[in-house]
Design the sequence.
């Protein structure tokens, strides 16, 4: 009975985003996140490092590339620690309720989280009132994540 009930309501839950993954900024034809850069390297190397397309892991429907198996293994142990905030979309765009692309060189780690923005100018605007912008983006992300 429980299996039948779950099977009956799962499509409804997916329709309303209850079980669905949140949107992730990926390359249109490949499903690769962070333009193929290793998400762990931002934290361990302090810079964007291109990943190897043969060393991958999937998370929230996106494929991440890694420069090494050690990076991939660290990511798989705790993907929330390394995955970019707001699915890798522009953090400032999320404050406005929009899912915008990013330039990889706008990356920054704040309070142990990876943030990216549309471009360097938008990154400066985001940083002018950082605490307020992160709070606003966190609030907006709840709705945006359910639309994905």
Sequence:
């Amino acid at each position: 009975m429980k299996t039948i009930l779950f099977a009956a309501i799962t499509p409804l839950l997916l329709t309303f985003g209850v079980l669905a993954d949140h949107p992730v900024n990926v390359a249109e034809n490949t499903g690769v996140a962070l333009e193929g850069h290793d998400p762990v390297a931002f934290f361990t190397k302090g810079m964007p490092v291109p990943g190897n397309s043969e060393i991958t892991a999937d998370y929230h429907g996106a494929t991440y590339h890694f420069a090494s198996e050690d990076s991939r293994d660290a990511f798989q142990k705790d993907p929330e620690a390394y995955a970019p905030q707001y699915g890798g979309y522009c953090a400032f765009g999320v404050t406005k309720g929009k899912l915008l692309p990013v330039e990889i060189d706008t990356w920054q780690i704040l309070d142990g989280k990876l943030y990216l923005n549309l471009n360097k100018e938008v990154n400066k605007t985001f940083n002018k009132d950082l605490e307020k912008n992160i709070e606003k983006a966190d609030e907006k992300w709840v709705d945006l994540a359910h639309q994905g």
The longest helix spans residues 130-147. The two ends are 31 Å apart (CA to CA). The longest strand covers residues 52-59.
